[in-house]
Amino acid sequence: MLTEQRKSLIMDRLRRDGQVVAKTVAEELGLSEDTIRRDLRELAAEGQLRRVHGGAMPLAPELPDFAARRTVSPSVKRALGRAAAALVRPGQLIFLDGGTSTAEIAKALPRDFSFTIATHSPTIAAELEAHPTAEVILIGGRLYKHSMVAVGAAASSQILLIRPDLFFLGATALHPIHGLSTGDLEEAAIKRLIASRAAETFLLATEDKLDHVSPCTIMPISDISGIFVQSGLAPDRLAPYRALGVRIIETQADGHDGS
């Protein structure tokens, strides 16, 4: 088998299983583990996967600071935000996670009826300063500056007092095997707590987050109600997520969406 064929097979296994074990692949192909380890090193150098002891895992996405993330895929995030905001109904309690995608939801929220927004992000609360009909509950605690959200015991105690109708969750990565994940353990715990209190949880996911794994697990994909994604993604990119029974909402750039 040619080197490129082996590498293609390794990447197929990684997408299918969420990990690659060098010994298992070597036995399957009748090759030495050294050959497979060399392939894994080369794939890691090419930025295709992340080497770990005994094999490989999907890449962890880069974690630029909050200001830098504002410049990433702004038109896609606007379309996702408009589609998500369309779910909001009069009188509901909505929890908005921190992040640049959820900020687009805040900007697109309806202005012709009343509802309440809870958030542990001061930047999200600031987006709603001039909103005419939204009541805002700001959850406090220790500020995790990378994501501009409150975390820790103080935030947790306040979240336990509310039961949101909808939670719009942010994550740095999602993977059909490894679920939703983020870069900070306390932030992951807060997201998990909010989801446990909410009637429904939705994720806004730009393409760069698909099939990646960050260090701290939030929850399995199957535990959320739906994922908003941009239109035009290849069907095989979304098939593993659909197979988990989660609703996939594909959003057009003009703000129309379909599933």
UniProtKB/TrEMBL annotation:
Q: Which InterPro entries match?
A: Carb_Metab_HTH_regulators (IPR050313), DeoR-like_C (IPR014036), DeoR_HTH (IPR001034), NagB/RpiA_transferase-like (IPR037171), Tscrpt_reg_HTH_DeoR_CS (IPR018356), WH-like_DNA-bd_sf (IPR036388), WH_DNA-bd_sf (IPR036390)
Q: What keywords sit in the KW lines? A: DNA-binding, Repressor, Transcription, Transcription regulation
- The residues covered by the HTH deoR-type domain are 3-58
| PROSITE patterns given in the database record | HTH_DEOR_1, HTH_DEOR_2
A Pfam family annotated for this UniProt entry: DeoRC
Q: What is this protein called?
A: DeoR family transcriptional regulator
